[in-house]
Design a protein that fits this description.
- An 8-stranded mixed sheet has the order 6-7-5-13-14-15-12-16. Strands 1, 2, 9, 10, 11, 17 and 18 form a 7-stranded mixed sheet that branches.
- The N terminus is likely disordered.
- Helix 3 packs parallel to helix 7, helix 3 crosses helix 11 and helix 4 packs across helix 11.
- With 417 residues, the chain is α/β, with parallel strands linked by helices.
- It is built from 11 helices and 18 strands.
- Bound molecules: flavin-adenine dinucleotide (FAD).
- The site of flavin-adenine dinucleotide has 39 residues, from helix 3, strand 3, strand 12 and strand 16.
- Flavin-adenine dinucleotide binds next to helix 3, strand 3, strand 12 and strand 16.
Length: 417
């Protein structure tokens, strides 16, 4: 069914959320966009991956529609948290270090274009380690080899620079002074805003999972529209198993992840940047982000939680995890012992079997691409994913084997951190 531009604007503005709840910039018509419904590419999913893909495709001259059920950076999406870390260290997984380095430059440039440079905070990242920890040792070698900004800091210097941290058994760390964190959902919305200024049409629409095989010519939306395009990119994050149950139902594992925000004592700047960097205690599988804009000192276990439904799963934190996290905080950050919890979030990782992203064509539909599997570390890489997918769509070329569907197993064995 052919749908007019006017109907799309109505759908975008008055969809499931209602016109008044859709941010004004998403309702605004992008300048220079012609009416009609025949896109070069329809990107389904306006999380960090879909937003960057849409933006890069528009930069490459493609006519792009970006669709999202709940809105870019919505609270149910994996990109919807307050903050996300960008670090360069990835053990010996060079591809992710390279992509982080490239992505940081692209993020800074886009946020400058959006006049929102402070959505990236260069707080530094401190990765703590114990003894001959193999992953951190490999990280050190990779950062050196690739010329990423970093320094090795030993225990006496750690204690001198960050006296508010009790390092416990950690006796050294890698400090990345150029890294830091993003104000996550705001940053995704900034990408969409810039993408729209380049001609991307945003539609607040839920796409019905496509059935059948062969070339896909259109997708249907739950509101009864049809969106036609030459190519479709499904960047649906933790929803990918629902959209492609046969293909991905057992290959993407959404897990429940709890995040805690503690309120530092009044007037105490020790837990805010620049006094406090982003930190990772790798051995205890936990990390945190300094208090930003008074929203609280973030602490989050990185261990995979139970299976989770991104539409309907409960987003209330559990007393058990809070108790574990409090115990850690009082040991590692004694100045935060007994401070109040000021907020909590429940989000989900969309894990692949080993943590490598999924970026590949649908095996039975040549013009359909599957993009996701951020696996708890994808946010920072949005720009590199956008660049990579755009290059595949525009120039062709083989898919990097580690991103292929064929490498995605049905049993989880985490290898990328
Ligand atoms: C607690 C937590 C902490 C994290 N910390 C970090 C970190 O510090 N650094 C880092 O780099 N990464 C981090 N990550 C991982 C990172 O946030 C994710 O990998 C990344 O955001 C995934 O983005 P995405 O675009 O693939 O998915 P999403 O952000 O989930 O986007 C998918 C979008 O698709 C839409 N959608 C789904 N189905 C449909 C449909 N049928 N029709 C229309 N739209 C649809 C959804 O509404 C959603 O907006 C963290 C994740 C979590 C949960």
């Amino acid at each position: 069914m052919k749908t007019t531009r006017r109907e799309f604007v109505r759908a975008a503005g008055a969809g499931a959320l209602g016109a008044t709840l859709v941010p004004a910039f998403l309702r605004a018509r992008a300048p220079g966009v012609s009416s009609g419904n025949n896109y070069d590419v329809a990107v389904v999913g306006g999380g960090v991956f879909g937003a960057w893909i849409a933006y890069r495709l528009a930069q490459a001259g493609r006519r792009v529609a970006l669709l999202d059920s709940y809105g870019p950076g919505n609270a149910r999406s994996s990109s919807g948290g307050q903050t996300r870390v960008i670090r360069m260290g990835y053990g010996d997984q060079e591809i992710y270090t390279r992509w982080s380095m490239r992505s940081l430059d692209l993020w800074k440039s886009l946020l400058a274009q959006a006049s929102r440079p402070s959505l990236f905070q260069q707080a530094g990242v401190l990765w703590m380690a114990r003894g001959e920890d193999p992953l951190t040792t490999k990280t050190l070698a990779t950062l050196k080899k690739l010329g990423a900004r970093h320094e090795r800091v030993d225990r006496p210097e750690l204690e001198r620079r960050w006296p508010q941290i009790d390092f416990g058994p950690n006796n050294w760390a890698i400090y990345e002074p150029g890294s830091g964190f993003f104000a996550a959902f705001h940053a995704v919305q900034a990408v969409v805003q810039v993408a729209m200024s380049k001609g991307v049409e945003y539609l607040q629409e839920a796409v019905v999972p496509p059935s059948g095989k062969g070339k896909l010519t259109a997708v249907a939306t739950r509101s009864g529209k049809a969106v036609q395009a030459g190519t479709f990119v499904f960047a649906c994050g933790p929803w990918l198993p629902k959209v492609f149950p046969d293909l991905l139902g057992e290959r993407i594992f959404p897990t429940r992840q709890e995040v805690f925000y503690f309120g530092p004592p009044p007037g105490d700047a020790r837990f805010t940047s620049p006094a406090m960097p982003v930190w990772v205690d790798f051995a205890e599988e936990i990390y945190g982000i300094p208090d930003f804009k008074g929203r609280g000192f973030k602490v989050a276990p990185d261990r995979h939680g139970p299976a989770f439904d991104p539409d309907s799963g409960s987003r209330v934190i559990t007393p058990e995890t809070l108790a574990t996290v409090r115990n850690f905080v009082s040991r590692r950050f004694p100045g935060l012992k007994d401070v109040p919890l000021v907020a909590g979030e429940v989000c989900q990782y969309e894990n692949t079997s080993n943590g490598d992203f999924l970026i590949d064509r649908h095996p039975e539909r040549d013009n359909v691409w599957l993009v996701g599997g951020g696996s708890g570390h994808g946010f920072k890489h949005g720009p590199a994913v956008g660049e990579y997918v755009t290059a595949r769509l525009v120039e062709g070329g083989p898919v990097e084997p580690r991103f292929s569907l064929a490498t995605k197993q049905k049993v989880q064995k985490r290898a990328v951190y």
